[in-house]
């Protein structure tokens, strides 16, 4: 791997006796230069990208972004994670574990296996939805739909998925999905995770950022106004609910203000909009952008190599 691309990333070396040793003989070190997704395939066999976690068990730092992009790549591997299973929990454990082992060949993870599998499931679902949007055309016959197999997709998997999407049960699933997506609202953090935004704000202000404050930061424009009318309404409800709790606590000592942000968020947003689910939505969007960039870079690299070969043949 080109070492100038390893700046700002933690690299560890696995040894037979330890997952992490020290310095050049195995241990955490800092590299030089940004590592791209394609560079992961050039890591030395003993090297891993170390992904740290925060107090909530969530990945943080630039390594977390690289991990998110790689999860997107794995989620699109039809041999490893077939698309013809309906919900993610029907995917065999053997497939999920194979994907997890592949990820651990390139990453030293502090986050739990369950966290990785859950994030991978979200990306697999997003990939499946993208294929449906691009290749499952409703205005053509079933026979034509079955023939319209996406590139690098196994035909039997595509045909199974198409028959499901074309069924009444598949149409019912789609209606439920559309209803859920319509309930989501826009954030302002682009490709950064909510975790990294909170960390940056804490460094800047020197104070811990609560979930209510983080919601405001991530759903406001630069001029301080809400991103959407709905986001503005939610902010007002969050403030009202917090004031209500604080007023109760001032007159009733039995009212516990510990973990108040979590309770207010869940009370106002409801189970379907919990903080963790909003984070998953953001990570999926970021991973798609990262994967698209990686694909473009790989294509440019391929064209460059072809040009170099042509020039050599002309000499």
Describe the protein's architecture and organization.
This protein has 315 residues and is mainly alpha-helical. The protein has 3 domains: 1-128, no CATH class; 136-182, no CATH class; 194-273, no CATH class. It has 11 helices and 4 strands; from the N terminus they run E-E-E-H-H-E-H-H-H-H-H-H-H-H-H. It has a 4-stranded mixed beta sheet, with helices on one face. Helix 9 (229-251) crosses helix 10 (260-269).
Report the major sheet. Answer: 4 strands, mixed
The strand count comes to 4
> From the helix content, strand content and strand pairing, which structural class follows?
mainly alpha
Count up the helices. Answer: 11
Strand order of the largest sheet: 2-1-3-4
Low-confidence stretches: 15-35, 179-183
What sort of overall outline do the alpha carbons produce when their principal axes are compared?
A: globular
Q: What's the Cα radius of gyration? A: 23 Å
Quick rundown:
This protein is mainly α. It has helices spanning 62-75, 93-104, 113-135, 142-147, 155-165, 168-182, 194-205, 211-218, 229-251, 260-269, 275-314; strands spanning 10-13, 29-30, 47-51, 107-109.
Layout of SSEs?
Elements: E1 10-13, E2 29-30, E3 47-51, H1 62-75, H2 93-104, E4 107-109, H3 113-135, H4 142-147, H5 155-165, H6 168-182, H7 194-205, H8 211-218, H9 229-251, H10 260-269, H11 275-314
Parallel strand pairs: 3-4
Antiparallel strand pairs: 1-2, 1-3
Helix pairs in contact: 1-3, 1-11, 3-11, 9-10
Region (Disordered): 1-32
Pfam family, one: Transposase_24
Biased composition (Polar residues): 11-20
